[in-house]
Amino acid sequence: MKHVIALDVGGTGMKAALVAQDGSVLFEARRPTGREHGPDAVVATILDFAADLAQEGRTRFGAAPLAAGVAVPGTIDEKNGIAVFSANLGWRDLPMRKLLGERLGGVPVALGHDVRSGGLAEGRVGAGQGVGRFLFIALGTGIAGAIGIDGTIEAGAHGYGGEIGHVVVRPGGPQCGCGARGCLETLASASAVSRAWADASGDPEADAAACAAAVDAGDPRALAVWQDAVDALADGIVLAQSLLDPSTVIVGGGLAEAGDTLFTPLRAAVTERLTFQMPPKVVPAMLKDTAASLGAGLLAWDLLSMEVTA
Ligand SMILES: [Zn+2]
């Protein structure tokens, strides 16, 4: 069975798979990233993991993987295969494609941005299947997005395309890690909702999932916190709608696990803000936390098909 290696490197854990050409997952594995040991150790862990996956492929399918795809957080130079910067993992100008290619005996390697890779997978085999234009938004520790166009993702001229988390929706609002104030991710990320609910409930351990549960139970303090986040998110989505006019907005990440508790008020808040814009379908992501790994596999297959046609 022809297959490629797919690897998603997160701040705490790595998710890997062997992926067939049709996007089906043949084998899955997880390992800790071990970032507490420093950036060099993380790179060594990634290379070891990839080499073990290659061996797994040979054992299971009698042939080495044809290519590898790796999705990483931060700023990526996809064209040159360089992880330019990751605050999370402590990288600067890391030649990931070269290192991984050497370790794997010269197979082609694709390097992708984690959220854009996740968006790619949602677009090809998840909630965006058959949708020409979509926006993927991941509500996690921060907020990131991916602009889907006919089965590909628009990364922008400098690799920052889709950064909806840093659209300012409340000028002068909370300080964001990027240096600005009132960015969407300071108001509607899972972390932002956790913080707001911890404040409002007086329980420092309270998180976004607890807030969603309190909303379902009809707690008015939770409803106020939740609606603030929903309103901010709707403002961000309407801005994106005006610029990009997607037919579908796919919402994933931790906060989306609240299901209808999020999607019902969010759809209402988006609809009430639209004037001339056509309403997008606002739907939950399908692939959950394996999206980025699967997307890395699809990038690897894309690389192979480009080599064939070149
Ligand atoms: Zn920001």
Automatic annotation (TrEMBL):
InterPro entries: ATPase_NBD (IPR043129), ROK (IPR000600). Pfam families: ROK (PF00480). Belongs to the ROK (NagC/XylR) family. This is ROK family protein.
